[in-house]
Amino acid sequence: MNTLNSTYSNEFSLINHMYDKLYMLDENDVPQLSAAETVDISDDQLVYTFHLREDGMWSNGDPVTAGDFAFAWQQALNPAVAADYAYFLYFIKNAEAYYNYQGYAADPEAWEEANAELEEPQDPPAEVKWEDVGIKVIDDLTLEVTLENPIPYAPFMFAFGTLAPINQAFYEECGQDLYNSDAEYFCTNGRLRDDRVGPRQRDGAGPRTPTAATSRQPARRHPELPHHLRRPDRPDLLPGRRAGYDRAGHPADSCSRPRTPAMRPTAIPTAPPSTPW
After folding, report:
1. 3-state SS, residue 56
2. Between β-strands 135-139 and 47-52, what pairing exists: parallel, antiparallel or unpaired?
3. Under DSSP, is residue 136 helix (H, G, I), strand (E, B) or coil?
4. What is the pLDDT of residue 233?
5. What is the helix (H) or strand (E) element at residue 36, kind and residue range?
6. Fewer Cβ within 10 Å of end Cβ, the chain: N or C?
C-alpha cells in the first residue's frame, strides 16, 4: 500500500486513515486543513504557503516536516518510481515539464525511438531542474507551493493520497521496493497505524516489540469514524478481522458460509407455451 503506487479506492481509503495530508476531506467531502495548521494564499491564487502543525509526528517518533512533503512529491514526479497518479501534481508549476524531462534524461535513445513512431514527432523536452518546480521548503514547518494556474479546486488536489508525505530517512532506509510492503516497513503520520510490529529502529536492527507507548499515534486525533467503521471495543479503529473469518464475520471458507435469502437459488418463472392460431 505504497502512497506513490496505490491505484484502487480501497487503498486510498486506508491511506486516508493512516496518513495526514495538508488538507483532508471532512464528512461532507469539504477540504479542511489538517497536517497544515494555517495557509496563506496569494491574491492571485497562485502561491500557497503552508504552516505545518508543530505536533505532527511520524509513527517512529520523528517530527513531520515540510521536507517530507517535498520529498514525497519529488518521488512521485520521478518516472522511475512509476507513480500511477503522478499527473495529479501537474497543477504545480513546472511539475509536468520536470516529469517529462526526467523521462527523457533517463534514456534519451529510448525516447527518440518512441518519438519517431509518432505521427507528429516532438522536440526533446527542455531541461527542467527540481529547483524550477514550484515546491519550496522555507523551513521545517513552512512549505511554499506555486501553482501553474489559479484553480479553485487546489485544496482537493492537496488532499489526494499521492500527495501524502513520506518520511525521507525511513524511506531511504527501507528502499523503494520494501517501503510499505509489510508491517515493519510502514511509517505513517495519521490517526491510525499498523500495530502488528513496532517502528523500525534507526540502527537497522529491525522491528521493535510494540509497547503501550508506541502502539498509538501521539499526534492530534481526527473526528470520530463513521458508525459503520467502528469496532465495539475500539470505536476509533477500523473493524478487525478475526482469524479464519472475513470482514462480514463469515468463515473464510466460502462453502461453510450460511446462505442468506438473497443467496438461495430461486426458480426462474417461465411463460406457458403459446398456442399458434
Report:
1. coil
2. unpaired
3. strand
4. 44
5. strand 36-41
6. C
Mean pLDDT of the chain: 75
* pLDDT over 70 (residue 216): no
Nearest Cα residue to 140 out of 219, 54, 46, 220: 54
**Alpha-carbon span 67 to 138, nearest angstrom:** 9
CA 115 – CA 122 distance, rounded (Å): 7
Alpha helices in the chain, H assignment, sequence order:
9-18, 66-76, 95-106, 108-116, 154-158, 168-174
Say how far apart CA 157 and CA 52 lie, in whole Å. Answer: 17
- DSSP conformational letter for 132: G
Q: What are the pLDDT digits (tens) for 232-275? A: 444 444 443 344 444 444 444 444 444 444 444 445 555 555 55
Select the more confidently predicted residue: 14 or 241: 14
Q: What SS3 state is found at 248? A: coil
**DSSP label of 39:** E
For the record, the C-alpha cell of 73 comes out as: 512529491
Buried b (16+ CB within 10 A) or exposed e, 159-185: bbbbbbbbbbebbebbebeebbeeebb
Asked if residue 257 lies in contact with residue 251, where contact means CB atoms within 8 angstroms, the answer is yes
Picking from 188, 189, 75, the residue whose alpha carbon sits closest to that of residue 135 is: 75
**CA 221 to CA 71: how far, in whole Å?**
25
Q: What integer pLDDT is reported at residue 184 of this predicted model?
A: 77
Contact 155, 31 (CB under 8 A): yes
The cell 519550496 sits on which residue? 136
pLDDT of residue 212: 34
Q: Which of 10, 87, 53, 80 is nearest to 165 (CA)?
A: 53
Helix ranges restricted to H, 5-78: 9-18, 66-76
The residue type at 77: L
